[in-house]
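User: Here's a structure from my thesis project, written as structure tokens. My advisor, Dr. K., wants to see whether a designed sequence matches the one we expressed. Can you design one independently, without my sequence as a hint?
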């Protein structure tokens, strides 16, 4: 699927494939310290990426590419179900977790491309894919740091609601989106 970013560039949205792992590793290592501090669902090296996506039923990757340079400019990961180490906290809000219909989500956009509508565009693409595999609820991967105003605003704009707060290297929000 092609979308147009606010800077008028044409952006290709598609699922991540194994042929993209090296390019994805380059993308991740080029993230600024500020962005990498906010986004770290797995190691940035090619082996860590291959390890995660070895089980394609459990993890899905989605990428946005600048059609002019063929460079990856955004990446989101979705894990089916929930993170085991977040489960007791999530249950403490009264959630009944479901390993088939819940998923866990983490988005990232390259620094130079943030605030250009790419995060939103890729998220809409992720949503349409999740619908087709029976996912009904999206949970944030390890929550979101409450001082990450860009991301908190992004989630609110996309109708995520806040379940509660927790302390982990500062204050964080757990947020979810029901997608039925
Ligand atoms: C959070 C992130 C994924 C959003 O993607 P993006 O491409 O920058 O966002 P978009 O341009 O699509 O904008 C979507 C919404 O995000 C929010 N947003 C984007 N840029 C913003 C900014 N500079 N200030 C405040 N809010 C901002 C707005 O709510 C915006 O909606 P609007 O355009 O209707 O105002 C991206 O900025 C990012 O990768 N940040 C660093 C990594 C990160 O924090 N990941 C999330 C970890 S929990």
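Assistant: Designed independently from the structure alone:
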């Amino acid at each position: 699927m092609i979308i147009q970013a606010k800077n008028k560039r044409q952006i290709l949205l598609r699922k991540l494939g194994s042929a993209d792992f090296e390019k994805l590793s380059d993308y991740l290592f080029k993230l600024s310290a500020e962005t990498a501090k906010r986004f770290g669902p797995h190691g940035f090296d090619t082996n860590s990426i291959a390890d995660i996506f070895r089980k394609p039923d459990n993890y899905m990757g989605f990428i946005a590419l600048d059609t002019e340079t063929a460079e990856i400019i955004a990446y989101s990961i979705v894990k089916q179900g929930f993170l085991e180490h977040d489960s007791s906290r999530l249950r403490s809000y009264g959630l009944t977790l479901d390993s088939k219909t819940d998923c866990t989500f983490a988005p990232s956009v390259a620094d130079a491309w943030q605030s250009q509508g790419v995060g939103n565009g890729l998220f809409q693409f992720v949503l349409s894919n999740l619908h087709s595999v029976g996912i009904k609820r999206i949970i944030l991967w390890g929550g979101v740091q409450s001082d990450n105003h860009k991301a908190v605003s992004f989630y609110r704009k996309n109708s995520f609601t806040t379940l509660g707060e927790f302390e982990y290297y500062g204050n964080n929000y757990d947020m979810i989106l029901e997608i039925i």
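When you compare it with your expressed construct, this may help: The pocket of coenzyme A is lined by residues 35, 38-39, 107-109, 114-120, 140, 144, 148-151, 153-154, 157 (CB under 6 Å).
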